[in-house]
């Protein structure tokens, strides 16, 4: 039987060793990487054109400048929309599965007020992630994406520090920019990344994004995805 | 005839001692044994588990099984606070029961106390995990497995250490070893991708620290401590090479096995030798299958593994008697 003082000494040794290891691993961030591009909210990039709709953690639709210069909540849905649309200069829309399938909710962009609900043809809610110019992406190996158009590889985007590429969630109307949802480890909310087609310009437009629904509009009225109603 | 009686007869026949001296030695040893046992031929009181002690173990086991059954069956129907209570109340009950039993002083109750406190370490760790998941304190997301696992590991190890200090017995050492093993895995889980090298490295450091304390007499009981921390050292050195590390990282396992074997023989510890032989056997078999099974084929690898197993058993059988005598001395 050891004496009490000897036992407390043993506790100090093992507890101290454990504390040093845990502190070192946590503070040094061993094996912890942050592959996220620069925050566009903190460092706006005017080179990224247009406006973007996305959904934040409060299930609210946010209208943001793609450059990151401004943003604001438009309408809180209470549910996570499946798809988002710019209908025209004054109206946006989102698709929700309840209370019945393909339920399109139209919202006034200025006031955030719900204008109308209607059921639309399911064929108009099928979204494929082909760019407006016909470009598609394919994962080549690891976290590299090939951009393929007319059967030809027109470019590659590599995501260093990732084992898998982030999820493609949208294109700019001119097919020159891609929007990705990145799901970081440790339970942090998803991030919305904007990446130029050549991969050189990148930015994190938002953190705490949910759902992966994105819509992109240019000042000339072009929008992606195309509106599901005429 | 006992070993001692045979020795006395042999020495008397050889003329080394006379019969009177042999008889005095017999009487001295008999008196010593009686003093230790209470009555000739009986197991000393308190050494043999009694009915109450057995029922106590049964109660603790039933309580623990009940908690797990509740978790398995009704977890989804419970709100957050009842979930915490479902694990926290048994944890507090096990802690209190252990404290009460320890205060009774008898050997059987003390054994029950260490069993109860060992269960309390696991239940308390579960309680911390449930609180983290249900209430997300300190901004720790319930999806943040890395942070949650680390906090649970630290809490379990801290409680196990404290309980060992209050009751330095075998089950407390085992609970400490188990909680340090969990903490080691939590440390390895901290990076974005699980790191077997980090986990194994932490286990090796914990093992070496415990072995050092056991050898200078600060970690008791010594035999349990040697076995527990020897096992941590063995697991930690094995993990990097045979999880994801590849050939260079297999070497620490063989170095640790040799060190445990050599140190075990040097210190007369069967526990270290057992860990060393076990590690050597498992590491050799895994190394053969991992590196050479393509060349030699699975049947030959199995034959080699069987030969290694026989060799390990023979080595243990050869070393065990002398190590036991060394430990007893």
TrEMBL record, chain A:
Keywords: Membrane, Transmembrane, Transmembrane helix. The lineage of its organism: Bacteria, Bacillati, Chloroflexota, Tepidiformia, Tepidiformales. Gene3D superfamilies: TolB, C-terminal domain (2.120.10.30). This is Uncharacterized protein. The chain crosses the membrane at residues 6-32.
TrEMBL record, chain B:
The keyword Protein biosynthesis does not apply. Residues 10-163 form the DUF2157 domain. It holds the Pfam family DUF2157. Keywords: Membrane, Transmembrane, Transmembrane helix. It comes from the Bacteria. The chain crosses the membrane at residues 54-75, 81-101, 113-135, 147-166, 173-190, 196-214, 271-289, 295-317. InterPro entries: DUF2157. The keyword Protease does not apply. This is DUF2157 domain-containing protein. It comes from Tepidiforma flava.
